[in-house]
Amino acid sequence: MAIASEKEVQQFKNRLRDLAEKSYHQNQFTFTSFLGLAEQDIFWQMEGELGYATCALWGGDEETDRKVLRFGSAEELGYEEPFAIACIHIKPLNEKFSDDLTHRDFLGALMNLGIERSTLGDIRVGGKEAYLFCLENIAGFICDHLDQVRHTHVRCETVAEISALPKEEPEQIQVQVTSERIDAVLAKVYNQSRSEVLELFRSGKIYVNGRLCENNSRLLKEGETVNARGFGKFHYLGVGYETRKGKLSVAIAVYR
Known about the structure:
Alpha-Beta Plaits; 6-stranded antiparallel beta sheet; 14 strands
């Protein structure tokens, strides 16, 4: 789902309350569909309220941004119910005559099938192919009906072992900043002015460890993950050294 109004925020909060109540009182696991960063941030705001029902987030892989929220735990319920997430490998029928495809290309082709965005998780793209996380109950439909992405004819198959999924390798860079303020680091990483970065905060596009960050002067801590919607994400690896001019050389692992 996409949160666009205060009414939708309240509806989403009520949905989370209902799922937590059902899990706790009926002794069963309950699940959301895939949540984007904005929806996850609403959950984090409610974490204290919903804490009586054990919560977990998972998107199919450690590095996914879109995740499913589960209420319940094996320790409390006496059984285990895994996240119903499938991984689909989408590849060209003939690589020689296929295009280099983008995330937007794959997502557009999937949306043209008439399915809900909330049934889809992350799409990991590599040149002419992609790996898609989705809810298990939609995987068969996608495999049967997704046969073309832009001008490229494709075939789809589910991947039984997630361990076969290629890992995204970030590019490690060094940037020099006057401090570990998040706005200063963002400006350097994405080659933006301070005013442009400030607008990203005002527009609610910056997340740290999955939570909305509205404080542009917040100091980053080693190991934190920053998502800048429209730009990408990076891991903050911390300060390497201080230059003679008093600037900090910080290490960043950037996902392009």
